[in-house]
Amino acid sequence: MAAMSVNDYLQRVQTAFYHQNGDVLGDLISFRDPHVMSLRLMLEKPERDVERCIDPLLAEVIAAHLRAVWAAGSGDCVEAWKTQMVVVQSVARFMQELKEENWMLPIMYSACLDLRLFASAADYDLTRSGASKAGETLEKAAEALMSCFRVCAADTRTGEDCTKRWGLLYLVNQFFKIYFKINKLNLCKPMIRAIEALAFKERFSLSQLITYKYYTGRKDMFDSDFKSADATLSFAFQRCHAGSRKNKRRILIYLIPVKMLRGYLPKQSVLERFNLPEFYDVVTSVRQGNVRLLSETLVKHESFFIGAGIYLILEKLKILAFRNLFKKVFLITGSHQIEVSLFLQSLKWMCVEDVDHDETECILANMINDGRMKGYISHAHRKVVVSKKDPFPPLTAC
Amino acid sequence: MATDRDKDKSQFMVGTCLGMCPYAEVRLRQRERLIHPLEMAVNSNGNQLNYVQPRAMVKEFSRSAAGTEIKASDIRPVPVLVKTMKYLLTTVCLREDVSWALVYQFVSDRLRAIQQDLCVQGIKNTTCIHLYQAAVRFYAYAHYRTCEHDLCDFDPYLNKKHLTETLTLVVALFHEQDCQNKDTSFVDSRLFPDCCDEEIWNDSNDDTSESKIVQDARTTEKKFHRRTRKEGGISLRMSGDSCLDQNSSTGVTNSLRELSLANNSGGFADSEISSFSVPTGRTKECENKVISGYTFREEAEALYLLVNFGNEEVLMHAFQLQKKIRCSRLVSVAIKMNIAWLSCNYYRVLCLSSILPPLFLCAFHPHLTMIQRKALSILSIAHNSKGLVYKQEDLAAVLCFPSVQELNDACRHYGFTVLGGGIIFNKAAFNWNISMMKPLRVKWIEDKLAKMELSDLLLPNDLSL
């Protein structure tokens, strides 16, 4: 296979096309298939050979692909990215031509995936050499993907069994990967809308759905919609195949903070199983109300948390740590009227930076406002009067 | 930088207009009588005449439209833009013979023209960033100073839009610089006096006319100085003023000078060192020291955080900055304020804000009403009890209200009962539907601004040489 000849390759393409076998064709233009290693297929100008044997509809795609094979073979990612852009654009045109059919979706999948990977590599190269801004190349790739997206999204009249809209989710996932990488989450919104409007949105393949849920869950998290983030990320985590531990771990990095904010702490064994030692102390400190330990942990693993984009969420966990700390103060005093200075003392003990009476009251006020504590503050007496019944409602209820 | 220019030559035009306003535009506006009052000639009696004073003309902003060809003779090169910026931010902004609203309208329009010229020429060097930053400073300051004006004088939405757009651009340009020269990115702006531009600008013959305008403005400024003081507008001392107005300002200047001598901790971009005490007498050690001495980069990032206060994306951006910038005093305070706001810790936010230099307070000020409203809503739930009152003096201090009167107004506005002894919080009473209070100028910001010269506040140091 690695030494496949041009004629052999074109023969296979033509046969697959004749049988409308999308999967085989998809492999035949994929860079994860051994044929791309064949030196004999690395052609800078393959048009004449291709036009001789291939149906004119598909000829453009195949010619572009062979040129991309040549570019990738020469080891130049930027050239490979540029040629792959042409492949995706011609795939879009090819799909446009074939109305009321969707067998060719696997071709689009291969082409789009390769484009994203090449663009990633090219982006890295171009940014390093200073030729373009970070993310610019990926953005251009997204534009090319958009041409496919339009073809798929516009195919609304065709029946459910052969509509190209089945390809939308795969494309959307590619968009997510790009937009999350270049940090343009606002662009995800129309994508989500397109998917949510589909009547068959629950019936996509599980692997695609999990990817989709992973990214939408992360987006919900950044939008501070924790309830929805919890639901989507939990779906992704539970359905994700037990074998793909790497993916499960990635999901957990976001699911854990979200769950913690909603009052569920992960077991130590889970953290160990998925190799997430950064969270050990986060969990311990929140459980104990140990604000000092939480602050220290945030500093210690700062780069990991910032890199994953969960630093701010963990910062919000401080509120829970305060709640647990204050609950302990309440339990120690055993009274329903507690002086604010006692809370202040506990905060000072936790090394909260230059804290004073007024700030303690402010933290308490927020806690009552959020329903994490029941009672009221008397500023004149500098006291907190906590409710007789259920002064610290369980966090899962808030 | 020279190589940069050479590279850009192929793509971008280079302006050839050597005055603040292209000749063609001067003629056109004279013909059509489109002369702004601030550009009119003045006769010996000090009355404005409806014809142009050529050296006071500044190029107007006009939307670039399809079909119109941009001529190099209409575009001002960087040195001229520097001069124009200087003229706008010192001479024009200090004019007190015309209303501030008029000055604002004039300057904000001309600033946009400057930005347009920069953009057309595709300039991205350090001087250019500083020009944008000067514009940012003006927008931020004007947002504060003009906040009480009516909508016809000042549109906060538009100003905010210009502010965020320019600021985002500045931050992006700095980021681009970082990426381009990873090795030299540590050489900070304080080492970049941008000598080449300075030279051109010193050699230019217009220098004399420029200084003459400044002199003109100074005489008028002196004339109207006392009057405005009485009116209670922001009184800003000009450099030549301390000798004129001995009684009122020498004392302050001296004490300032002493302080800056004692506290000579390396002021680079701007150093306004002054002791500051919160009017309400909060005593925290950190509050007594206003941050001073920061680089242009730090200034831009801190302003970005404050203008977009509460925006988590911007906060995430700040975390990705180089450690040196992120941990600088100014930026770290801005980050801390944002983090404190994540958990609605209004007290900490307002406390930290008191150590910000005046310019940054101006940028932060638009959020003040929002924070106060949120704080009152939280307090109304946490202090919800019929028998209890919250002493006004205490609350005014916590929420940075300049006086009990303003606090009472705000409380009544949002639906609380105010008694002589204090405020009764009632969680049912808080009215979320009512519109937010119109922002007001605040005494503690006013005090800080008064201690500073407006030209120092607005003009980045290396442009003002």
From TrEMBL, chain A:
Coiled coil: none annotated. Residues 210-391 form the PCI domain. This is PCI domain-containing protein 2 homolog. The lineage of its organism: Eukaryota, Metazoa, Ecdysozoa, Arthropoda, Crustacea. Belongs to the CSN12 family. It comes from Cherax quadricarinatus. Transmembrane segments: none annotated. It comes from the Eukaryota. One of its GO terms (cellular component) is transcription export complex 2. PANTHER family: PCI DOMAIN-CONTAINING PROTEIN 2 (PTHR12732:SF0), UNCHARACTERIZED PROTEASOME COMPONENT REGION PCI-CONTAINING (PTHR12732). InterPro entries: Csn12-like, PCI_dom, WH-like_DNA-bd_sf.
UniProtKB/TrEMBL annotation, chain B:
It comes from the Eukaryota. Gene3D superfamilies: 1.25.40.990. GO terms for cellular component: centrosome; nucleus; spindle. Pfam families: SAC3_GANP. InterPro entries: SAC3/GANP/THP3 (IPR045107), SAC3/GANP/THP3_conserved (IPR005062). Residues 20-181, 294-418 form the SAC3/GANP/THP3 conserved domain. This is SAC3/GANP/THP3 conserved domain-containing protein. It comes from Cherax quadricarinatus. The lineage of its organism: Eukaryota, Metazoa, Ecdysozoa, Arthropoda, Crustacea.
